[in-house]
Amino acid sequence: GEPIMPGVLQLEAMAQTGGFLLIRRLKRPGVVAYFLSIDKAKFRRVVRPGDCMRIEVKIVKMRSKSARFAARVLVDGEVASEAELLCMVTDPEETA
Questions:
Q1: Cα–Cα distance between 23 and 64 in angstroms, integer?
Q2: CA distances from 20 to 24, 44, 67, 76 (A)
Q3: 89 pLDDT exceeds 90?
Q4: Contacts of 50 (CB under 8 A, 6+ apart)
Q5: CB 53 within 8 A of CB 96
Q6: Residue 31: CB partners within 8 Å, gap ≥ 6?
Q7: pLDDT exceeds cutoff 90 at 93
Q8: Which residues have CB under 8 Å from 44's CB, separation 6+?
Q9: What pLDDT does 14 receive?
Q10: pLDDT, position 96
Q11: What is the mean pLDDT of residues 4-25?
């Protein structure tokens, strides 16, 4: 009777946003972003249905095919969750 936005889905939303940012920054359309790791995850407040989540992602370190991000979810200007994420990109043609 108390619906919430699960923390794992908040992390997934941060990873998806980071992957999108990485692909745009590398200027390589057609590559696929993969979520590799998560560190320092913290959950600060409950996110409920109807809340508007603002996802902020900042690149901390970038290499040719990967990046480490500092990411956070905000609701009404308050940090709901935060984490450090690592993502990489691969070309589907290379892995086929």
A1: 11
A2: 6, 25, 11, 24
A3: no
A4: none
A5: no
A6: 23, 89, 90, 91, 92
A7: no
A8: 78, 79, 80, 81, 82
A9: 95
A10: 54
A11: 92
Residue 7 has pLDDT above 70, yes or no: yes
First to last CA, the chain: 46
Q: Which residue has the higher pLDDT, 25 or 73?
A: 73
Amino acid at position 10, single letter: Q
What is the C-alpha to C-alpha distance for residues 89 and 34, in angstroms, rounded to an integer? 6
Q: If you search the block for the tokens 């913290």, which residue do you land on?
A: 42
Closest CA to 68 of 26, 92, 90, 39: 39
* Token pair listed for 71: 């990411």
Work out the average pLDDT over 18-38. Answer: 87
Burial class (CB in 10 A: 0-12, 13-18, 19+), 27: exposed
Longest dimension (CA), the chain: 47
Q: Which pair of structure tokens corresponds to residue 44? A: 């600060």
